[in-house]
Every structure is written in C-alpha cells, then in structure tokens.
Amino acid sequence: MLFRSSAAICGALVALAISVAIARSETRGDHSSAVVDAASGDAIIGAASTYNPFKPGKEEGGPKTASGERYDPSGWTAAIKTSLRRKFGGVEFGARPKYALIEAVGKKVIVKINDVGPLRPGRIIDLNERTMRHFDPSMDLGVIPDVKVSPLAGDNWTPGPVG
C-alpha cells in the first residue's frame, strides 16, 4: 500500500513538473515546434523583404503601424501584404495585433503582425530590421524567397525565435 501511494505521488509530481515546464516555455516564447505546428493556420509562401520608415530614402510605411503602434526596429514585428489582411484576422487601426510563424532558411520566428502595406509584386511580408537580421544577419540579401508565413490562432504568443 505504501509503495502504491509513493508511486502515485511521484507520478503526480512528474506530471506537475512537465506542465509547469510547458507553461514556462510558452510564456517565455520558447515555443516547441509541436505547439507552433498545432496552432498554425494555412501557410502562405512568397518573398519577404524589410523596411524601416526611419531610414533615409524609404518610401513605404511611416512611424505608426496599422495597429496604431509605433514602428519598432528592435521588436519582432512585420507588415503583411494588404490583400492578406483578412487571412490574418483584420490588422486594423486600434485592433490587437495578430501573430504569425515565419519559416525561412532553416529558421523559425514568431512575429507580431501589426502593419499592412501594398508590398511589391511577389512579396507577402515586410519584416522589421531585427526579424530580417534573424534570417539574414548581414542584411545582404534584401529579399528572402520562399518564406512560409502561417497565421497563429489567439493572442498569447511571445514574439521571437522558435527553437
């Protein structure tokens, strides 16, 4: 009887430890691939570019994003092509930003979609500088082809790299 009670307590503690570890990883943004894959919607594949409205010579965008937030080159954010706005749940002024999983060159990152724009032909998403540097550290490419963008359900995501 004592052995069964000890085994039951041990099993309960292991289950608790696992659930705490999962909860911690989700709040820190260390989303496991299984969690991200389960939450992903229909993916869109196309080219990704980058922009920073504060750099001289930039014609697109502005300091305020479609969600009303100020453009932040150090965040994990992006602007989706205007025609894809509905697929990403709206992305409108004053509305909560949406989230997406971006996959390219063997890397994954969760970004906050807080802007929209009339991107150049073939491009589906504009990444802010920090996000683009994750995929292209030297910023030499300018455009990354064959980027997979999957909308994420809900708004409890922490933007950043997915390990």
From TrEMBL:
Residues 51-72 are annotated as: Disordered. It holds the Pfam family DPBB_1. Keywords: Signal. Residues 56-72 have a biased composition (Basic and acidic residues). Residues 1-23 form the signal peptide. Gene3D superfamilies: RlpA-like domain. Residues 46-145 form the RlpA-like protein double-psi beta-barrel domain. InterPro entries: RlpA-like_DPBB, RlpA-like_sf. It comes from the Bacteria. PANTHER family: ENDOLYTIC PEPTIDOGLYCAN TRANSGLYCOSYLASE RLPA, ENDOLYTIC PEPTIDOGLYCAN TRANSGLYCOSYLASE RLPA-RELATED. This is RlpA-like protein double-psi beta-barrel domain-containing protein. It comes from Bradyrhizobium frederickii.
